[in-house]
Amino acid sequence: MNRVKVYRKKLISEDDSQSAWFLCLINEMLSCTLAIGKTMTIKSLLYTGFITMTLITASHSSASEKKLALCPNSPNCVSSQAADEEHFIAPFKIIGKAEDAWTAMKQALVSQNRTVITEETEDALHAQATSLVFRFVDDIDAILDAKAGLIHVRSASRVGYSDLGVNRRRMEALRLALRNVGVIE
Fold first, then answer.
1. pLDDT value at position 69?
2. In this model, does residue 156 exceed pLDDT 70?
3. How many CA atoms lie within 13 Å of 171's alpha carbon, on the beta-carbon side?
4. 8 Cβ contact partners less than 8 Å away, ≥ 6 residues apart
5. Can you give the pLDDT at residue 28?
6. Distance between CA 31 and CA 142 in Å, rounded?
7. Weakest-pLDDT range from 55-64, 113-122, 126-135
8. N- to C-terminal Cα distance for the chain?
9. Rounded-to-integer distance, Cα 33 and Cα 142, Å
10. What is the CATH number of domain 63-180?
């Protein structure tokens, strides 16, 4: 149930916390106007505007600004955002609509054996793949960058040093599955 606060004859839901915070701050500054004077109020308004714009801009970061976690020094990780050749794997280049490629990506990922998506947003996901015999868990991360027409991927083992190429083969199998449905090059 969503509680609602009344603020100056306006209804503000608790989900709209940035707006409520901003309105309360403005109210406090206006209350201080009589005691402090006009100079301080203008400065305060400028600072408040700057802080509010910074908060709003930071909360609406795009997928192109998101980064995958770095690979460790061990060879049991691949990433399309890795700087070194040992860990690098090419990102998936989207053909057509990004939404279709993202949907196909999720379907192809969960169709892999012992793989489940554990976290998901509209442009990022985290999945876990568990090995058959020893039950090792590998982490899989993907970020949809619709503007660039790419899906960035990362697959890494949680434990051990070498994965005998399992993470790279997993990502290449995913690439092949997406090529077969015609959503990536």
1. 92
2. yes
3. 26
4. 23, 27
5. 57
6. 48
7. 55-64
8. 46
9. 50
10. 3.30.530.50
Query: Domain limits of the chain?
Result: 4-59, 63-180
- The one-letter amino acid at 61: S
Q: Is the pLDDT of residue 132 over 60?
A: yes
* Chain centre distance of CA 43: 35
Rounded CA-CA distance 41/28 in Å is 10
Give the pTM.
0.65
Q: Hey, how many other C-beta atoms are within 10 angstroms of the C-beta on 171?
A: 21
The CA distance from 95 to 101, in Å, is 8
- Residues 124 and 143 sit within 8 Å (Cβ to Cβ): yes
Closest C-alpha among 142, 140, 138 to residue 162: 138
- Whether the pLDDT of residue 136 is over 50: the answer is yes
Main-chain phi, psi angles of 38, to 5 degrees? -70, -35
Average pLDDT, rounded, for the chain:
78
Q: What is the token pair recorded at 44?
A: 């305060």
Any residues with CB less than 8 A from the CB of 94 and at least 6 apart, and which?
101, 146, 149, 150, 151, 183, 184
